[in-house]
Amino acid sequence: MRIPSSPLFPAASLLPGLAAAITFNCAQINADGYKYDLSPLGGVHTIYHAEKNDNVIVNTTYVMNICTALGGAANRGHLQCGTSRNICGFQYEYDDESKKESSFVFPIAGLEHMGHGAKDPEITRLKKLDADTEGLQVKLRGGKYPNDSKKSKDASAVIEFVCDHDRTGLEGLVETPKRLLRAREEDEDGGDDENDGDGEGDGEGKGPFDDGSDPNRSLEFKSFGPSDDESYVLRLNWRTQYACDNYLLEHGSSSGHWGFFTWLIIIFFLCAAAYLVFGSWLNYNRYGARGWDLLPHGDTIRDVPYLFQDWLRRVINTLQGTGSRGGYSAV
């Protein structure tokens, strides 16, 4: 039998692939029988790392949102990563000798345009990797990175959420301004060097170079580079109490999301209220009704208590009648 052509058929055939691509829910994570809720760590966060090679400073700003797409935060000026991404890298290079600047952006994790691609999340308890470490390892894919040969390689992110009962995970996570860090060598006479506007001198005559490391920050940069399979991997370390195995058992779920049935009940009552208000308005304007007559099906509503009594009486009679003896009664 020939399947009739329909514009809905191709779209329906894409639904399984789309469902498989969106499989990471940071509010409902299950691993080895333990449940985790990382939704308090959601939102757009920025972390940067800088390296100095001879006269060239490479500053990479990583923008991430582990729970939902970055949206507008994925675009910075002429550098556009894609609003459907979860993690993007903005790399800025400055040559202190030639005074040349360059920049480019690359996606690390998330979906492609129009929801194509897949994040293919992998979730592993850290105790499987190290018996003394409690937490989760989350790997998200879907990115591309242009290497030195200008050929795009697959990119992904590996985030280790380490259990820390004293940290929420948001410590030190402030919006870092986009900047190009410019190193300046120490003056030969040992004099103080001028700041370049960042205001981050080290007090020893050296320039304001800052590699971005901060021990007080819960989210830490570990590395970014090629792995064994030649794909590029961003490794982050995130200390938070939400990665502890028994946090939800001790504190309950930290997410404020309502369940499906709660929304269903709310929608039902809203629809019922809208029906009563619209029906009352219609009866008032069309028939000039007052009092109970305003309500649509007012007679039925008034009879509800009596209908319920009749139904309850029938139920009682039915239950009592099942125990009676059948046949003819004696005269």
From TrEMBL:
Membrane spanning residue stretches: 258-278
Which keywords describe this protein according to UniProt?
Autophagy, Cytoplasmic vesicle, Disulfide bond, Golgi apparatus, Membrane, Mitochondrion, Protein transport, Signal, Transmembrane, Transmembrane helix, Transport
Q: How does it sit in the membrane?
A: Single-pass type I membrane protein; Single-pass membrane protein
Signal peptide positions are 1-21
As for subcellular location, the record says: Cytoplasmic vesicle membrane; Golgi apparatus membrane; Mitochondrion membrane; Preautophagosomal structure membrane
**Gene3D superfamilies associated with the record:** Mannose-6-phosphate receptor binding domain
Q: Where is the MRH domain?
A: 24-246
Does the record bear Disulfide bond in its keywords?
yes
InterPro entries recorded for this chain? Autophagy-rel_prot_27, Man6P_isomerase_rcpt-bd_dom_sf, MRH_dom
Bias kind Acidic residues: ranges = 186-202
Which regions form coiled coils?
none
What are the boundaries of the region Disordered?
178-224
Q: Which family does it belong to?
A: Belongs to the ATG27 family.
UniProt name for this protein:
Autophagy-related protein 27
Q: Which organism is it from?
A: Aspergillus lucknowensis
Classification from the root reads: Eukaryota, Fungi, Dikarya, Ascomycota, Pezizomycotina
